[in-house]
Each structure stands twice: as structure tokens, then as C-alpha cells.
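Fig. S4 source data, part A: sequence.
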Amino acid sequence: MKAAWYEKQGLAREVLVVGEMPDPTPAPGEVRIRIAASGINPGDIRKRQDDFGYGMPYPRVIPHSDGAGHVDQLGAGVPSEWMGRTVWCYGAQSYRPFGTAAEFTVMPVDHVAPLPERAPMEQGACLGIPGITGHRAVHVGGSVNGRTVLIQGAAGSVGVCAVQLAHRAGARVIGTVRSSPDEATAKNAGADDVLVGEKDLTSRVRALAPDGIDHIVEVAFAANIEADIELLKQGGSIASYATDNATPKIPFWQMVFKNIRVFLLGSDDFPEEAKLQAARGLNAALEAGWAGFEIGERISLAEIARAHELVEHPARRGRVVLVL
């Protein structure tokens, strides 16, 4: 099969290789997927660049955790009804060397979900990490039904999923975005109100929710923590999956006096049941008519280095997807 891989970390054009590898065979409890589309997430870039300083976890890494395609082989113990299914998968390169940037990948069947009929492969390829993170970020603090949820970065990949899932869960959703073109993205995902830009953000949120915010989904923990604490109700919660500063300071006593709960979310290590619930919730949203992500770039496997560079330095709005 054709595949892309790296055996050392660094710049995309310096370390990514495209070549031939033996076709994989599924082990017991696994399925083999003929990949049609492979999603690229910021985490894939960070692993390849060694941003976290962990080094090479395996001698050779086929990148990308998310993908979509057709099941074409079953490992021992996998029910026969999986054969031939159109599916999406997640966690392919989480604690594993074998991601989705290849013609085939093998996956534990519990990390595979049927792709709804109306959903294109490209959407399925983008669901995994952002969708599961968005679901966890919305639901980790308890039910949001009838509550007011603020989603910072509501036009990003995780933010869009969080908006849609909070909306479906019965929340009133307020989203924040950086620029006017992002406003429609958040609105289309289900936000009730969208605030553009950072100027006077706290006062504008207060005008929409004078009684305060129940729960915040946060993309820039360090930059926004003081404003978030000011906006939260007594006993409110924050679920953060990213930060602009790796060593943020926090307003400890203000958080104590409000009894604020903080959830820090690393998608690779979510409980398995949370991942399964997220997969079901995302499929339900697609089946109900959610359009999913805007696809900005469709790149061939042979040009994976360019695809990674477009994730690092976007040329247009939307997700970057490898199409095999």
C-alpha cells in the first residue's frame, strides 16, 4: 500500500516520506479500513514537530488520528456486520504508530463508528479529535439543558462541534469569534448569539446573560481565565482543551469564592465511555442535518507535506483533508 510516514521529527518537507509499505492485517478485535479521507489536526503537527518534547514514540510513525473509509477486513471476534461498512475512526495514532495517512489502517473496532449515509467521507475524516473533544467539553461538568453556555472560539474545529452539541443538548449557546466571517460559521452550527472580536467582550457577554454563565468551553485558557471567572455564576464550570500560554496564572481566590470547577481536557485519555457517547452524539447530529465542517483544502497523499504546511499556515478557511 501507499503510505506517508516519518522516522524523525521536524519540518514537514524534511521528515515526511511517501512510499510503499506492506498491507496491514487486522488483529483480533480490529478491523481494516480502506481509507478514503484522512483528517489533519493541530495535534498531528505538534507530534511531528515534537512540540511537547516527548521525542519519537515509535521508530516509524504514520501520522493522523482521524479518518474515514470502508471496512474491508475483519479481525477475529469482530461481528460480520462490520464488513463493507462506511465508517469513521478516531485515535488511530493515539498511543499507536499506525495513523490514517495511508491506503489502509487497522483499528480496534471500538474506535470505529458507522458514518451516516448523508455524510461525505471528508466530514467523517474530520470528526474524531475535534468532535470528541467538543462533546467532552460540553458535557464533562454535567447536563447543560436549560443552562447558558459560553463557547470561546466558536468557529474553530472544536468550537463548531461544541456549539452544535450544546445546542442539541438544550443549552442557550453564546459563541465568541475573532472576525466577522466566522460569525456565520458559529451561527450555522447552532449558536443563539455570536460576539465578534475581543473588545469589551466581558460587558457584551453580560448584556446577553446578566445572571451569568453556567459553563464555559475554553480554547485560550491563559488569555481568558480572568474574564471567564468574572462571567461565571456561583458553582459554574470551565472545560478547557487548549491554552495560549503553557504556564498560566489563575485568580485562585476568586475561583474559590465562586466554587468554580475547572476541567482540563486531553482527548487521548478521555474515558472510553465518554468517547463512545461522543461518537453517538456526533452521528446523531449529522443524521439530524448538521452540515459539519467547512472543507477548505483537499490534498492528495503524495502532497502530505504541503497539506501539513497548509494546516500550519492556512491559505483559506476550513479544514485540510487528505483525499486518497
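Fig. S4 source data, part B ends here. The first helix runs from residue 12 to 15.
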